[in-house]
Amino acid sequence: MNKILTAALKIFFRLLYHQFAWLYDAVASLVSLGRWKYWILAVLPFIRGPRILEIGHGPGHLQAALAAGGWNPTGLDPSPQMGRIATHRMEKHGYVPVLVNGYAQYIPFANQVFDTVLATFPTEYIFEPAALSEVIRILKPDGILLVLPAAVIDPLRPLDRCFAWLFRITRQAPGQLDSAYIDSVSRPFKHAGFEIETRIIATHNSQVLILIGRTFSDNSAC
């Protein structure tokens, strides 16, 4: 049953990210009880700028927030549908989008050009050695990697408990952000050559996990 559920969810989320990308915002808002946009903005205080690459930019909310904050954001995403949605969002807010259709395993940029590379709620690609090797290649020597792998809804109300359960059974979030989970998601980054700092941010009756990765040559504060 678990294998069937996993396979079905992969198909569903692939369709949601590609053919049905126009539904993505509505579904993300529904399953997070409106918290999803607040979750992704939790990475902003940790950014080291000014040149930022967002891997998996999706519908472009974070791209717009980065531009509004004075950073110079670039987005990379394999979904042409998401590229069109993000372009429309950026242009609607008066920003010039810099979006590239591509994959994290083959990032089409020169060496050491970005101050921060970030990914919010990425799929399994973010743990692949090829993707992490590319991130290290394009980061400046004192650059950082920010990854927001998961958020957990605080089960304060019956509706919160219901959606926290839904998040767990669809495997979009762990049961809790405990040390075992944090160790498991941190391990691939450490193996790739990152020193990892973890932060758990409380926002809108939920907890957001942020991983801050620095290469071993960079021990300066964020």
How would you concisely characterize the structure shown here?
The protein is of the alpha/beta class and 222 residues long. The chain has helices spanning 2-17, 24-31, 36-41, 61-68, 80-92, 129-138, 158-169, 179-192; strands at 51-55, 72-77, 99-101, 114-120, 139-153, 194-202, 206-215. The protein has a single domain, classed as Vaccinia Virus protein VP39 (Rossmann fold), CATH 3.40.50.
Report on the architecture of this protein.
With 222 residues, the protein is α/β, with parallel strands linked by helices. It has a single domain (2-215), classed as Vaccinia Virus protein VP39 (Rossmann fold), CATH 3.40.50. 39% of the residues lie in helices and 25% in strands. The chain has eight helices and seven strands, in the order αααβαβαββαβααββ. Helix 6 links the parallel strand 4 and strand 5 (139-153). The mean pLDDT is 82.
